[in-house]
């Protein structure tokens, strides 16, 4: 079964760092683009960026460039989303996603991870 | 950035009725459009890709159409499990963008 299993909910203070994870199984991790999607409370979906674990090619949406780091560890089929200094406005649900088809750059997202809720509050 | 505009924001429909959801792109995106369904407390689920191809396991009552800048998702006969928020998503250009969602609620 193709699955993306994300790390658990986090509660952090402004200025703290954080790295959340997305463990992939049931498919060849290095052959699919993996992405991260943000959903702020009560709001819609925003694509943050994608990474191709096969060669670590990474693309960031302009709104998120320089704000987060997307990475992947091929040895454990896990993708990461990292912040160096969290802000209250980073409070959101974060979903990891896989492109539907192997190697396709122009592609829909399927499946989705279960989401990781990040709360940033002083 | 391509702006995706969905209408209406909320659609009130009785079970068994037809629902038509619209999505407009600010620039042509060819047929590189997907639709997702999100229920409360759940992750979104892929319904449709390539404008009109149903994802695995999606019932035939869901259909998609359009090309270029105008797209439609139709649910031919709404079932109780279809009441949810629906998002369109363009994957033709970077950055990938989503519509703001259409909530389909029970009338």
In a few lines, what is going on in this structure?
By secondary structure, chain A is an all-beta fold.
Order of helices and strands of chain A: EEEEEEEEEEE
- Give a count of the beta strands of chain B, DSSP E runs of length 2 or more: 11
Largest sheet geometry of chain B: 7 strands, mixed
Total strands of chain A: the figure is 11
Q: What is the distance, rounded to the nearest whole angstrom, between the alpha carbons of the first and last residues of chain A? A: 40 Å
Strand content of chain B: over 45%
Biggest pleated sheet of chain A: 7 strands, mixed
Radius of gyration of chain B: 13 Å
Tell me, what's the shape of chain B? globular
Helix proportion range of chain A: under 10%
Structural class of chain B: mainly beta
Helix % of chain B is under 10%
The backbone outline of chain A, from C-alpha atoms, is globular
Separate helix tally of chain A? 0
For the residues shown, what is the average pLDDT of chain A? 97
Name the poorly predicted regions of chain A.
none
Determine the structural class of chain A based on helices, strands and strand pairing.
Answer: mainly beta
Secondary structure blueprint with pairings:
The complex is a heterodimer of chains A (122) and B (107).
Chain A (H helix, E strand, L loop, with lengths): L2 E4 L3 E3 L5 E8 L8 E6 L5 E8 L4 E4 L8 E5 L4 E6 L8 E8 L9 E4 L3 E5 L2
Parallel strand pairs in A: 2-11
Antiparallel strand pairs in A: 1-3, 3-8, 4-5, 4-9, 5-6, 7-8, 9-10, 9-11
Chain B lengths: L3 E4 L2 E4 L5 E7 L7 E6 L6 E5 L3 E2 L7 E6 L2 E6 L9 E6 L6 E2 L3 E5 L1
Parallel strand pairs in B: 2-11
Antiparallel strand pairs in B: 1-3, 3-8, 4-5, 4-9, 5-6, 7-8, 9-10, 9-11
Description:
The complex is a heterodimer of chains A (122) and B (107). Chain A has strands spanning 3-6, 10-12, 18-25, 34-39, 45-52, 57-60, 69-73, 78-83, 92-99, 109-112, 116-120. Chain A is mainly beta and 122 residues long. In chain A, strand 7 and strand 8 form a beta hairpin. Chain A has no helices and eleven strands. The termini of chain B are far apart. In chain B, the strands form two sheets. In chain B, strands 2, 4, 5, 6, 9, 10 and 11 form a seven-stranded mixed beta sheet that branches. The interface between A and B is medium-sized, with 21 and 23 residues.
């Amino acid at each position: 079964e193709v699955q993306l299993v994300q790390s658990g909910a986090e509660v952090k203070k402004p200025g703290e760092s954080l790295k959340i994870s997305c463990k992939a199984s049931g498919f060849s991790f290095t052959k699919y683009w993996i992405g991260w999607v943000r959903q702020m409370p009560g709001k819609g979906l925003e694509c943050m960026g994608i990474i191709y674990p096969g060669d670590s090619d990474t693309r960031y949406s302009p709104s998120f460039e320089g704000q987060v780091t997307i990475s992947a560890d091929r040895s454990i089929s896990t993708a990461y989303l990292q912040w160096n200094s969290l802000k209250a406005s980073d409070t959101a649900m974060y979903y990891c996603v896989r492109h539907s088809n192997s190697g396709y750059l122009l592609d829909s997202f399927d499946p989705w991870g279960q989401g990781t809720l990040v709360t940033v509050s002083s | 950035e391509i702006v995706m505009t969905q209408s209406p924001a909320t659609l009130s429909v009785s079970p068994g009725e037809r629902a038509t959801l619209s999505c407009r792109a600010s620039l042509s995106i060819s047929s590189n459009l997907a639709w997702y369904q999100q229920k409360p407390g759940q992750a979104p689920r892929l319904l449709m890709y390539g404008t009109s191809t149903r994802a695995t396991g999606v019932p035939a009552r869901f259909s998609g159409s359009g090309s270029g800048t105008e797209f439609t998702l139709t649910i031919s006969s709404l079932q109780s499990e279809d009441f949810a928020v629906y998002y369109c998503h363009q994957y033709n250009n970077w950055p990938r963008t989503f519509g703001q969602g259409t909530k389909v609620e029970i009338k």
